[in-house]
Each structure stands twice: as structure tokens, then as C-alpha cells.
Amino acid sequence: MKTLIKAARDLLGMTQAELCEKANVPLITLRRIEGKADHRGLVSKETVEHIQATLEAEGVQFLESGTVSAGPGIALKPGNAEGIVELQGSPKKTA
Fold first, then answer.
1. What region, left, alpha or beta, does residue 19 occupy, with left being phi > 0 and alpha being psi -120 to 50 degrees?
2. Neighbours of 37 (CB within 10 A)
3. Count of alpha carbons within 13 Å of 32, Cβ hemisphere only?
């Protein structure tokens, strides 16, 4: 999820501090999510889902494999997603 959260934030042109303010989470929490390949145990699933929901409210659409976007955007082509696995219904980059 770390790669997707960071990519979504970058697409919106948001800094970590701006996202944290909108999501009402500490900056260290977002840094743990974006900086650790496996942040489980450091950050709760609910917090990650809350950050994802905040990004979605700002206009980002997270796609699951096989879904189509509701507007212009980018996605990984099939076969180019090496190291991406499903986690809680959302792709996650593995180390």
C-alpha cells in the first residue's frame, strides 16, 4: 500500500504534511506507511484505510485488478506489476 499512498499523494500534489492535516493523523504515521514495505504492527489497518479514504475524497480512485477508472488516470499494465500483491483488496508493493 505504501507505493499507492505515495503515488496518490503525488498525483494530488500534496505534501506529507498536507495529507496528514486533512486525514488528521500524525506525520510519523504517514512516514511509517510510505517508508516501510511492511508497516503492519506499526500502523493499524483502520488508519491506512482512513488515509486511503481521505485521498479518495480528494479525487483519487484506487483500482483493483480488473477494474476500470471512472476518468483519466494511470495504472500498471498486466505483467508489469512485479512485486505487487493483493492486501485487503488493494494492491501492495512488496520488498
1. alpha
2. 12
3. 16
Query: Length of the chain in residues, anyone?
Result: 95
Q: 1 is written with which cell numbers? A: 500500500
**Opening angle at CA 11, ends 46 and 25, nearest 5:** 30
On whether the CB atoms of residues 27 and 20 are closer than 8 A, the answer is yes
CB 14 within 8 A of CB 5: no
Residue 66: its pLDDT value, please? 77
For the whole model, what pTM was predicted?
Answer: 0.73
41 conformational bin, left if phi > 0, alpha if psi -120 to 50, beta if neither: left
Gyration radius of the chain's alpha carbons: 13
Ranges in the chain, pLDDT < 70: 36-40, 76, 79-95
Q: How many CB atoms lie within 10 A of CB 21?
A: 13
